[in-house]
Specification:
heterodimer; A: 2 domains; 12 helices; flat; B: alpha/beta; D-Maltodextrin-Binding Protein, domain 2; eight-stranded mixed sheet; 12 strands; about 45% helix; globular
Chain lengths: ~300, ~450
């Protein structure tokens, strides 16, 4: 009894101690999510105030979404953008990290330099690339003109607009994967590398069979972070293409933004946002399952 | 205790002394003494926002005068057109008090007024204590005020600009050298562009990529329209043969005669390219074309202007007006009104015309003033008269489509559809059919019965 009573009191103390954190969590995370969900069950149109708490057709927005080709197209654009940006960022990040994986003054300086894109405000990155893609003034376009290979505008051409976004997005965020890779590379023990070298392994073989197994989990985590973050791609699209030309760069969150902020259809926009939240949860869960170590 | 008591005594003595001085002063004046230099709205701060255009930009430098006169401090903001509209639309929809004075954007007039997001201004206009007779509301162009009224005739905005689309050629000398005048029809425009494009290294044609504004004169010129019969019948009419014909012609002008990446040009890029002599001809809002005659322009001496060309079914120049309004949630509407009144006095607008060459005014008295007429003559062409001739088209009613509360939805569809055609993603017919389907579902979702 005494022991049980002490346990009870200890549990109560834990609960009491957790309460502030749970209240904060509820206030800043759960309440807005619940509000989003509730809004998605209404046809809320800001210019028609009566639609605010109209739950007469709670699944109306979701049924509409099933039959909305622009929504499905936006999901496909999102998939293409996410896959391409994550792949490019992982390759670039790893490549640059391998080059910088030595402690010399020049490389230390270069590491700092490479971090600059990541710390710039996204809107500044957008402006930088807006200039880079402006045919009249861009150094890239001028250079191509000068060498006799003129390149048309990348952001107004439907065949290249998404690639242009991928390039800008990758430039902004590859330093993140580079940092992760660099940290992992510096944790690789020297002994197995030395042993492999003594055994006559080539540099590629050392990387593939000795170094990479050490860093692959870190790269996976970096990839997951970037994958989830890629779904939030917005500022670059807003500044560079406005979702166009046509709708070739209109990703799902941009479509939700249009519905909510341009057309004031907050119910419909919330339904899209809710599906995105669910999608991200499912994605995170699936990746977690797939990458969990076998003995866990 | 002793110290506290001493303080209390000293305070009482000071109070008594002050009182003994105030009593005779009050008796002498017969009323409470006024604070020296006190202004009617001292301590009030207004948040004012408008999209970036010539008038609001020029007005900014005179705001200290307004503060000096009224005591009202002003936080003044002029973001770009799309950014402004999104910000204002969101703020108004909350009926919040974040802004005290906002621009009433033409395409949002019906939506913002209809939803009750703006305060009626009649109580200020009809109150002689608030608005002196010589402010003269009747002086504003009726065509510019009309979109700012609701069905009952109540006024929700005072227009500061009547935006009129004209056509300007920065390098008209290239037209003249080839025996061409300013194009008066679509056919003449096409012929002229074939001849002058790339002459002297100048691209023939440029146009703002806000297709929902710049494409419509072509759409209507070919006999198409945006809605079937606004405001009674809002069925979109984007998939008609006329619309497809207009889109093909429109895309041809951009792709065949425009500079590289012409499809990405915003209004300021078109203006700057024209001023720099990189683009020759452009249908543009007259306020931007007027900048061809301003300092820094390389083409003032070679420029020429006309009304926008007519299509097979007539001439349909874009006309819009924007005005100052007060959000319904604004806390100090009297102070807001003071700002609007000040910003649109005849004297203020005349100063902007005389000192800065403001090209768009909404007061009839100023339109006919010698100062305005003189400023509007660019390279010998009376653009003021072109403005007046064009604004007369407003009475035909073809601009109604633009003030419908669901126009933003259709505007977005037109932007995307034309973008697909210009960029070669789709043929005009296919792209417009897609826009029609999308517009119908957007309108239904917004509660429009079709």
């Amino acid at each position: 009894m005494r022991s049980g009573g002490r346990t009870l009191r200890r549990d109560d103390a834990f609960r009491l101690g957790l309460t502030p954190a749970l209240v904060v969590l509820a206030a800043i995370t759960i309440a807005p999510a619940v509000f989003l969900l509730l809004t998605s069950l209404t046809p809320l149109n800001l210019s028609l105030p009566d639609t605010a708490w109209d739950f007469s057709a709670p699944l109306g927005n979701y049924i509409d979404l099933l039959d909305d080709p622009r929504f499905s197209r936006s999901v496909w654009v999102q998939v293409k953008l996410s896959v391409a940006t994550v792949a490019v960022q992982l390759l670039m990040g790893l490549g640059v990290a391998l080059l910088l994986n030595a402690d010399t003054p020049i490389r230390r300086f270069a590491r700092t330099g490479f971090l600059i894109p990541m710390v710039l405000p996204p809107i500044v990155v957008g402006i930088v690339w807006r200039v880079m893609y402006a045919v009249d003034i861009s150094p890239f376009h001028r250079l191509m003109d000068w060498i006799g290979l003129p390149v048309g505008s990348l952001i107004t051409n439907p065949d290249t607009a998404l690639t242009a976004i991928v390039i800008a997005e990758s430039w902004e965020w590859f330093p993140f994967t580079m940092l992760m890779a660099l940290a992992a590379l510096q944790m690789v023990p020297a002994a197995p590398v030395e042993a492999a070298r003594i055994d006559g392994a080539s540099e590629w073989q050392i990387f593939r069979y000795v170094v990479f197994p050490y860093i692959q989990q870190t790269m996976l985590v970096a990839g997951i972070f970037r994958l989830i973050d890629s779904i939030k791609a917005f500022p670059l699209i807003f500044v560079l293409t406005d979702g166009g030309p046509g709708d070739v760069t209109e990703v799902t969150n941009y479509y939700a933004y249009r519905q909510a902020f341009t057309f004031s259809l907050w119910g419909y926009g919330s339904a899209i946002a809710t599906l995105m939240v669910i999608g991200i949860f499912v994605l995170s869960w699936a990746i977690n399952r797939l990458t969990r170590p076998a003995d866990a | 205790m002793k110290t506290a008591g001493a303080r209390a005594t000293r305070r009482k003595i000071l109070k008594a002394g002050a009182g003994s001085l105030l009593v005779p002063m009050t008796m002498m004046a017969g009323k409470a003494p006024a604070q020296v230099g006190k202004k009617p709205f001292d301590g009030v701060t207004l948040n004012v926002s408008c999209w970036s255009s010539t008038y609001p930009t020029l007005l900014a430098q005179y705001i200290p005068e307004f503060t000096e006169k009224t005591g009202i401090k002003v936080n003044y903001d002029t973001p770009g057109f799309p950014v402004y509209n999104q910000r204002a639309d969101l703020e108004l929809s909350t009926k919040g008090s974040g802004f005290d004075v906002l621009n009433v954007t033409f395409i949002y007039t019906s939506r913002w007024i209809g939803a009750g997001w703006l305060a009626p201004l009649d109580e200020f206009l009809k109150n002689p204590e608030r608005t002196p007779a010589d402010w003269d509301f009747a002086d504003f162009l009726p065509g510019a005020v009309q979109p700012m009224r609701d069905k009952s005739g109540a006024v929700f905005g005072i227009p500061w600009i009547a935006d009129v689309m004209l056509a300007g050629a920065g390098r008209f000398d290239l037209f003249k050298a080839n025996g061409l005048g300013m194009p008066d029809t679509f056919d003449e425009l096409d012929r002229a562009m074939q001849i002058v494009n790339k002459k002297d290294g100048v691209a023939g044609y440029g146009i703002e990529n806000h297709w929902g504004w710049t494409f419509i004169p072509f759409l209507q010129g070919f006999g198409g329209n945006v809605f079937r019969n606004p405001p009674d019948d809002l069925m979109p009419m984007l998939d008609t043969p006329e619309a497809a014909q207009a889109a093909e012609f429109f895309a041809k002008l951009i792709n065949s005669y425009g500079p590289p990446a012409a499809a990405g040009y915003t209004y300021d890029q078109v203006t700057e390219a024209q001023r720099a002599g990189r683009i020759n001809y452009a249908p543009q809002n007259h306020v931007f074309l007027a900048l061809l005659g301003e300092a820094g322009s390389k083409v003032t001496a070679t420029s020429n202007f006309s009304m926008v060309p007519a299509g097979p079914k007539g001439r349909f120049p874009g006309i819009a007006s924007h005005g100052w309004g007060i959000p319904v949630g604004a806390k100090n509407k009297a102070a807001s009104w003071e700002f609007i009144k000040w910003a649109l006095t005849k004297e203020m607008v005349l100063r902007l015309v005389e000192k800065h060459g403001l090209g768009s005014v909404t007061r009839q008295s100023l339109l006919s003033s010698p100062a305005y007429k003189q400023k509007m003559v660019i390279n010998g062409v009376d653009t003021g008269q072109l403005f007046l001739d064009t604004i007369a088209f407003a009475s035909k009613g073809y601009m109604k489509y633009r003030t419908m509360h669901v126009y933003p939805q259709v505007n977005a569809q037109i932007n995307q559809a034309i973008s697909r055609v210009v960029s070669g993603q789709m043929k005009a017919k296919e792209s417009l059919a897609q826009a029609q389907t999308n517009a119908i579902s957007d309108l239904k979702r917004a509660g429009v019965k079709l």
